[in-house]
Amino acid sequence: LYEWQAIETGTGNTMYNGQVTLGTSGSYNLTDTARGSHKTYNLNRGTSGTGTLFSGTDDIWGNGLPSNLETAGADAHYGAAETWDYYKNIHGRSGIRGDGVGAYSRVHYGNNYVNAFWSDSCFCMTYGDGTGNAKPLTSLDVAAHEMTHGVTSNTAGLVYSGESGGLNEATSDIFAAAVEFYSNTAEDPGDYLIGEKIDINGDGTPLRYMDKPSKDGASKDSWYSGIGSVDVHYSSGPANHWFYLISEGSGAKTVNGVAYNSSTSDGLPVTGIGRDKAAQIWFKALTTKFTSTTNYAAARTGTLAVAGELYGTTSAEYTAVANAWAGINVGT
Ligand code: ASN
Ligand code: ZN
Ligand code: CA
């Protein structure tokens, strides 16, 4: 009548998250049947096609070192699984399109390639091996960032330029942080930093800081007229800052051992409502209010509407949404 398929799991020895459980299939390959049959492929330094599906004679993947080609595969496969679980368990969304269908990951893209990207055309995410092919861009926050580009593309569809492009980038950073806090492994506890594990700057500093985006030397802390002309990875700054402020509040604070200090453009304090409520508000705005042309002003209106629907317009949550936007110079 039907073929019964067991939910199979193997062991991943990752570079960034220690030893983890991976969804696997057959005997043996990286196909996660519990998560839309998401697959992970080895491009083996190529730059096109799918390369080969990670396969092996045992169900143990990688050894924690980048020289073992399975290691980056294990990290990417884990990142996709955690991001899938986050969207499913926290927001009730089954997969990137909400239809239960998995995407796929490709690792070992190119030679010394220091980037990762989502592509709508392949419905897949791709990871380079980083400088010296020694720092694969497969950390959990990067995986969640790239997978979230797929979610944004299939929901609000925020155009990837101008202010909507900055909001698109910020959406990927916001859920990158949320997924990291959700997963919260000892090796990679949740933080409001993006890319702290991949050493893209070569000096141990992260790629982006959500409490004070300008710490990276290029991102903007607050909205200003004309922010739409800067690179989307820098015009994301104010929205990342908004997310930090509404989650944790203004001022100095240490979370999971990381010290933050966030100030507002209007000098007024913001009282945080916690990252779970903040992420819920952003997700609902992304999926029910934002459109392809949403700009900062419209993101404020959309999130206020959502906060009103969820908590009421006289709630502390509604006030926090308004104060956090005021704190990045939107709607004042
Ligand atoms: N890693 C970059 C990103 O996801 C790639 C790009 O610029 N699209 O934003
Ligand atoms: Zn991005
Ligand atoms: Ca991080």
From TrEMBL:
<protein>
    <recommendedName>
        <fullName>Neutral metalloproteinase</fullName>
    </recommendedName>
</protein>
<comment type="function">
    <text>Extracellular zinc metalloprotease.</text>
</comment>
<comment type="similarity">
    <text>Belongs to the peptidase M4 family.</text>
</comment>
